Amino acid sequence: MKLIYKESISSDVWNWQETLNNTGSYGQDWLKNWPKDLTKKDAHDKKKMRAYLNNKYYKSGAVKKYIEWMQVAINPKNIEEPLIKITGKKVPFKEVYVIFTTNMRCPYDSDDGGFYAHYGASPDWFYKTAMHECMHLIVHKYYWKMMLDAGLSNQQAHDIKEALTVLLNPEFEKWSIPSKGYPNHQNLRKDIEKIAKSEKDFGKILSKTIKVFLKKYRKKVS
């Protein structure tokens, strides 16, 4: 797997504006730490949002310099090898694009193979984000149909996809940055941890998780 790093202020603007429309996803309040020098009214205006980001981050070349540093600091093997160990699958893209965002929200693209990562994050924190998002790419490619065929709605499949990242915590503990997950998924994550104590095959963990979900959480999460 090769990482293709991108500097895109247009994509960053999009992410900030999408954050305004996803304030309560999975129980996460993305506006909790909204910058005091940016009004939500201005953030809705694409030109003003772009000017704000350009003046604060891009015009100085800070984002470009950060990307150049990350190109040297990051080894993609440290992302893909643990994922292969956990899921038994390779990331389903030979090249995965990475867009650095100045927002805390980091979406992913399962169609073209990419994800957003935090501008300014340490390499360890980047590895955490990358493994989290690349696990999503694996689940979409190899296991999404399995979840829908089992009777889950698309949104319920997303809930399980997010909760499955609890399986990455043994890797994250190396950097002392375990993934807490979203508020709405805490009980489901605990159930997945229990399943994983006796079952190591990712597909079987997912199969058992689906059964637990349909029994306990069908109407409770999201």
What can you see in these coordinates?
The chain has helices spanning 9-21, 40-44, 46-58, 62-73, 77-87, 123-142, 144-149, 154-163, 169-172, 186-198, 202-216, and strands spanning 2-6, 95-101, 108-109, 114-118. Helices cover 55% and strands 9% of the residues. By secondary structure, the protein is an alpha/beta fold. A hairpin with a 4-residue loop joins strand 3 (108-109) and strand 4.
List keywords for this structure.
single chain, globular, 222 residues, alpha/beta, four-stranded mixed sheet, 55% helix
Pairing-aware structural class of the strands and helices?
A: alpha/beta
> Number of helix segments?
11
What is the number of strand segments?
4
Q: Round the mean pLDDT to the nearest integer and report it.
A: 93
Global shape: globular
SSE succession:
EHHHHHEEEHHHHHH
Distance between the termini: 32 Å
- Physical arrangement of strands within the biggest beta sheet: 1-2-4-3
Radius of gyration (CA) equals 18 Å
Helix content: 40-55%
Instruction: Summarize the main sheet.
Output: 4 strands, mixed
Q: Which regions are unreliable across 5 or more consecutive residues at pLDDT < 50?
A: none
Q: Regarding quaternary structure, how should these chains be classified?
A: single chain
β-strand amount: 5-15%
Short synopsis of the structure:
55% of the residues lie in helices and 9% in strands. By secondary structure, it is of the alpha/beta class.
